[in-house]
Amino acid sequence: MLTAVWNVGRLIELRFSGSPTIDDVAQFELDSHACVASCAAQTRQPVVVCTDIRATQLFRPEVTERLIQTMRGNNRLVERNAVLGNGSALMALQIVRLTKEAAGDNRRRMFTELDPLVEWLAESLTAPEQDRVRQFLAEHETNGAANREAPTTAGAPTTTGRTPTPSRGPTSYAGWRPFPPAPRKK
I want to staple 71 with a disulfide (CB 3.0 to 4.6 A). Which of 62, 95, 102, 134 is the partner? Predict the structure, then answer.
């Protein structure tokens, strides 16, 4: 599921979850363009976007291409777009590709922690908009969407909003052996 919402000021909130299909992206393209255009027209300023992708999975190639087209279509109306990822290295690579191909500049950035994201967006947001960013990203944890792809342990979420995963120790299989410890310096 992909959603685009405009709640306050010139802040646009985008949330991705699950594994979006090309039909999901087509509807999202219409929704996000309408949201961005309405906000920019009313405020007479470029919009600031906060995108939460923590509950999504890798995009299929056709979905990636359509998202790049969607982002390019909004470029002239977007001042900044901060993307909060889930810490997956593969997802981070995919999002970096998306942001580079969509704009080729520094107006879009990927984050895995909340504080640096809010800090970067704060340069362009009013106090009420900054409060809404925090509230929007906190909704991810309260709606049960946090970390669907990873098992979790009981306990409080970390500062990144992720719940720690249990330690499983080394995996044994045929041919597996641990690396010997590094020699100690005298």
Answer: 102
| Per-residue pLDDT tens over the stretch 110-141 | 999 999 999 999 999 999 999 999 999 998 75
* Domain ranges, ordered by start, for the chain: 2-142
Per-residue pLDDT tens over the stretch 19-40: 999 999 999 999 999 999 999 9
| Cβ contact 43:85 at 8 Å | no
Whole-angstrom Cα distance, residue 33 to residue 108?
Answer: 17
Nearest Cα neighbor of 149 from 19, 85, 63, 55 is: 55
CATH class for the domain made up of 2-142: alpha beta
The amino acid at residue 27 is Q
In the structure encoding, which two tokens stand for residue 21, read together?
A: 């299909």
| Residue type at position 54 | R
Which of 130, 112, 135, 136 shows the shortest CA–CA distance to 54?
112
Through-space distance between the first and last CA atoms of the chain, rounded to whole angstroms = 57
Burial class, 14, CB count within 10 angstroms (exposed 0-12 / middle 13-18 / buried 19+): buried
DSSP conformational letter for 155: S
